[in-house]
TrEMBL record:
Pfam families: YhhN. This is Lysoplasmalogenase. Its main location: membrane. The chain crosses the membrane at residues 53-70, 76-93, 114-132, 138-155, 162-179, 185-208. InterPro entries: TMEM86B-like. Keywords: Membrane, Transmembrane, Transmembrane helix. It is found in: Membrane. Belongs to the TMEM86 family. The keyword Membrane applies. It is a multi-pass membrane protein. Coiled coil: none annotated.
Length: 214
């Protein structure tokens, strides 16, 4: 019973990833399977960790998922989704920072990943910039730095599961941005969702375990 939400999460993840093949004639299946992913993880949080901060993070992840899946090409939906995920990333950063002890902070260790993260963020933004509409430049730039900061603070925490989750999150969002603003390739949705699913599961399950120790 303890892991029921994780088991249901994996079942829903399979349905979500295979829905373009299994339910091609019923696209509305994803209207249920996609938001259900975070709802199930919120159930796992409630069972494992009643502290509100992680639940708050998951709520904004859920809102981001919902806004980005709304039908239509309205830029407002994307902006609302981006804003929700921005709040989620800031919340993750706060959680990682609170978990990091003074003993875990090693300045020499921290400089190299910080430089690497900054190089990636600046390079990716320089690549995307010519393809961004004027109204999207500032929101995308803010989100890119929040995403990079999340990865950096995950590395600083030096928890292997959290670092891996943060890495998958960066991959997912980078591929999503690449497809939306530059070029969308066959199977891009599967790449985005599979890495996103793994990222959220790793981050939330690891944070639940870490917070239980304190």
């Amino acid at each position: 019973m303890k892991n029921i939400f994780i088991k249901l999460f994996w079942l829903d993840a399979v349905i979500e990833l295979l829905s373009p093949l299994l339910f091609a004639s019923y696209p509305e299946v994803r209207l249920v399977s996609k938001p259900l992913l975070l709802i199930l993880l919120m159930g796992h949080i409630a069972m494992e960790n009643p502290r509100p901060a992680l639940f708050f993070t998951a709520i904004f992840a859920l809102l981001g998922d919902v806004f980005l899946m709304l039908p239509g090409d309205s830029p407002l939906y994307f902006q609302l989704g981006l804003g929700s995920f921005l709040i989620m990333q800031v919340s993750y950063i706060r959680l990682f920072a609170k978990q990091a002890s003074d003993e875990a902070w090693v300045p020499v260790f921290a400089r190299k990943p910080l430089a690497g993260v900054l190089i990636y963020v600046f390079s990716f933004l320089a690549f995307l910039n010519p393809y961004l509409a004027g109204g999207m430049k500032i929101p995308v730039t803010l989100y890119a730095f929040a995403l990079g900061s999340m990865l950096y603070f995950a590395i600083r925490l030096r928890n292997q599961t959290i670092v891996l989750g943060a890495f998958f999150f960066v991959v997912s969002d980078s591929v999503l941005a690449f497809g939306k603003f530059y070029y969308s390739f066959l199977g891009i949705s599967s790449v985005v969702m599979s890495t996103y699913i793994v990222a959220q599961l790793l981050l939330i399950s690891a944070l639940c375990k870490l917070q239980l120790k304190k």
